[in-house]
Amino acid sequence: MKLENLEARFQEKIDQDIKIEPKDWMPEKYRKTHIRQISQHAHSEIVGMLPEGNWISRAPSLRRKVALLAKVQDEAGHGLYLYSACETLGITRDELTDQLRTGKAKYSSIFNYPTLTWADIGAIGWLVDGAAIINQVPLQNTSYGPYARAMVRVCKEESFHQRQGFEIMTTLARGTEAQKEMAQDALNRWWWPSLMMFGPADKDSTHTAQSMKWKLKRKTNDELRQQFVDQTVPQAELIGLTIPDTDLVWNVVNNEYDFGEINWEEFWQVVKGHGPCNKERIAARVKAHTEGAWVREGAMAYAEKKKSSSRKIAS
Amino acid sequence: MESKNQWPLWEVFIRSKNGLEHRHCGSLHAADASMALDNARDVYTRRMEGISIWVVESIHITASQPAESEELFDPAKDKVYRHPTFYHLPEGIKHM
């Protein structure tokens, strides 16, 4: 069959909501785009453990500690589901994690910001996971079967993440003056980076049109960002915190919030590797990989030894 | 060197409760079968999703190819007589 015909048939399947499975024919660009997006997503889950892991040993109570520990474990799990989904497209785990450690692959820039106080853990759960959920929910219906199935699992598990963050923020906001200030400070620092999580403005986004066709995206970056602002502003008001945006105002005509301009200069700087923690995050992954090498090799050597000795017994 | 030491891939199947079959839920890397079981517990059953786990090394699975789909599955298409709705029954018949 001619390539154009194959491509037309492929697009028809997607239009009819028939999932694409690993062994099915797919255009090379579809495969590459999916490897890029799914691996970025997996890397984000893995790197996302670092800022929060920083606070596990300093959580203020056992209740907070078990919740944070469970959340970070979930993120490890989500990274693993997504790496497995990505490997079905014909790339190895080693290649994927190499790309992260060498800086060839990107991950969500939000994790290049530091977690300075306990309130940051609240802000991450509330805002960062809140934004992630908005991005992820539509992906449960994306066209690539293994990715869609992984996302169903991720979304089911993620629903407690945002609540635990908001509970931390609510408690601090209703606490002493110093606690309230800490919560406000965390909101001030995490608000704009959270808005940046939805990616460049539609007018500057290169992938949107193709991603829409493949159902990798159902709404544009700006639409999702608007949804996030509209649902988050009333939540901040409810607990008496102030969104750090002087241009924020309810637009009665459009029935949505107008909000200020994002600092795109900062966004691109962090994407290009010049955020506050880019180097630290990659260094942590390289260190874990290097220092874990003997464990990986030892386990493999043990498995091979056991296999060969059981072969001897059998013969 | 690096890829030589990559742990093999395993497919994970979980029985969510007695009376139901084991269902494929995903895959993971592990050095051997017992590590694959341990990892499967941590990765796929953090919320009581299962009471029994099977793991099988992915290379042991033989899969049909989409290119063979027609010859494999099309022959069943014209055998409507394998379904009860193919048969004509008189009005008013009961228990059939």
Textual characterization of the structure:
The complex is a heterodimer of chains A (315) and B (96). Helix content of chain A is 68%, strand content 2%. Chain A is mainly α and 315 residues long. Chain A is built from twelve helices and two strands; from the N terminus they run H-H-H-H-H-H-H-H-H-E-E-H-H-H. Chain A has helices at 3-15, 28-53, 62-87, 93-101, 118-136, 145-173, 177-196, 208-213, 221-238, 264-274, 278-291, 293-314; strands spanning 249-251, 256-258. Chain A has a two-stranded antiparallel ribbon. In chain A, a hairpin with a 4-residue loop joins strand 1 (249-251) and strand 2. With 96 residues, chain B is of the alpha+beta class. Chain B has a domain at 1-61: Ubiquitin-like (UB roll) (Roll), CATH 3.10.20.520. In chain B, 18% of the residues lie in helices and 21% in strands. Chain B has two helices and three strands. Chain B has helices at residues 33-44, 69-73; strands spanning 9-15, 23-29, 52-57. In chain B, strand 1 (9-15) and strand 2 (23-29) form a beta hairpin. The longest helix of chain B is centred in the middle third of the chain and has 12 residues, at 33-44. The mean pLDDT of chain B is 92. Chains A and B meet through helix 3, helix 4, helix 6 and helix 12 of A and strand 2 and helix 1 of B.
Keywords, please?
heterodimer, A: 2 strands, about 70% helix, B: alpha+beta, Ubiquitin-like (UB roll), three-stranded antiparallel sheet, 3 strands, elongated
What is the C-level CATH assignment of the domain at 1-61 in chain B? Answer: Alpha Beta
Share of helix of chain A, binned: 55-70%
Helix count of chain A? 12
Largest sheet of chain A: 2 strands, antiparallel
CATH topology of the domain at 1-61 in chain B: Ubiquitin-like (UB roll)
- Class from helix and strand fractions of chain B: alpha+beta
Distance between the termini of chain A: 50 Å
Multimerization status: heterodimer
**SSE topology string of chain B:** EEHEH
